[in-house]
Amino acid sequence: MSSRNEPPAFAADRLSVRFGGFHALREVSWSVRRGQILGIIGPNGAGKSTCFLAATNMVTHGGRLMLDGVDVTAMPAHRLPRRGLRRTFQQNAFFAGMNVLENMMGALVERRPSSLAGSVFLPWRERRLRRAIEAEAEAHLQRYHVPRALHRHLPGELSYGTQRMLSIALAAAPGARVVLLDEPAAGLGGPDMLALRNALMRMREEGLALALIEHHMDLVMSLADEVVVIDLGQVIARGTPAEIQADTRVLEAYLGKAA
Ligand SMILES: Nc1ncnc2c1ncn2[C@@H]1O[C@H](COP(=O)(O)OP(=O)(O)OP(=O)(O)O)[C@@H](O)[C@H]1O
Ligand SMILES: [Mg+2]
């Protein structure tokens, strides 16, 4: 899917984060290519979510962020999604007063503001554009296993699993190049897990670069092309799923937390 010569779709280079006197991340580096899934694992409190906060400039950090070979370290957080860097959160976040379809349409429009320019003084053109965006939003939602019957509901009325799929559909709206997912499988049951796995595999096939924080080992180990293990704010191992599963440091990090 991606050539070794092209820069990674996203690279986090030596990320460091302090919360007051507490060093939450120390020089953590990882990168992901188009058509690749990077798994990020580690015990509770290891610093995984902090990695995503730093990677999206939501927190003050040391280190460098490269998006498609462009240095975006200094770019304000709100500009990154339009540049193709998207994320989902450990807790789902939607516009609660808007229905599912409107949330999706909002994501489509937000990412393509130029297509709305020029429509302002032409109501008929605006209506046509609105219908086109609506159709695109419906199709996109269905591809992410949010059935049409639910599109006019408020996000809060959906099952937990469908809310998860909605948050992924929003993050994967056209224009996405890199999607960071923080524990998408948390709390999901069997059928929802299948829908999630299916969506992640399709996103990869379509050439997205995915970074996946996950405690659900079956999912990470079966999907990830590469895995990075974080413990106490540092990378303690990286490699293929097979290499990571055989790594005694990784086992010790998890057993240490369980003891
Ligand atoms: N805003 C904050 N202020 C102070 N400490 C924080 C803050 N956010 C996170 N921490 C601390 O930083 C460490 C890393 O937290 P983080 O949320 O990144 O862990 P995590 O690996 O995502 O854990 P989990 O698997 O439980 O989600 C933890 O010790 C946490 O308590
Ligand atoms: Mg977390």
Secondary structure elements and pairings:
Elements: E1 10-19, E2 22-32, E3 36-41, H1 48-55, E4 62-67, E5 70-71, E6 85-87, H2 100-110, H3 113-116, H4 123-143, H5 160-171, E7 178-182, H6 190-205, E8 209-213, H7 217-223, E9 226-231, E10 234-239, H8 241-245, H9 248-258
Parallel strand pairs: 3-8, 3-9, 6-7, 7-8
Antiparallel strand pairs: 1-2, 1-4, 4-5, 9-10
Magnesium ion (MG) binds next to helix 1.
Features:
259 residues; six-stranded mixed β-sheet; four-stranded antiparallel β-sheet; 10 strands; globular; alpha/beta
Order of helices and strands: EEEHEEEHHHHEHEHEEHH
Radius of gyration: 19 Å
Average predicted local confidence, pLDDT? 91
* DSSP summary, beta strand count: 10
Number of helices: 9
Bound molecules: adenosine-5'-triphosphate, magnesium ion
Tell the overall outline: globular
Strand order of the largest sheet: 6-7-8-3-9-10
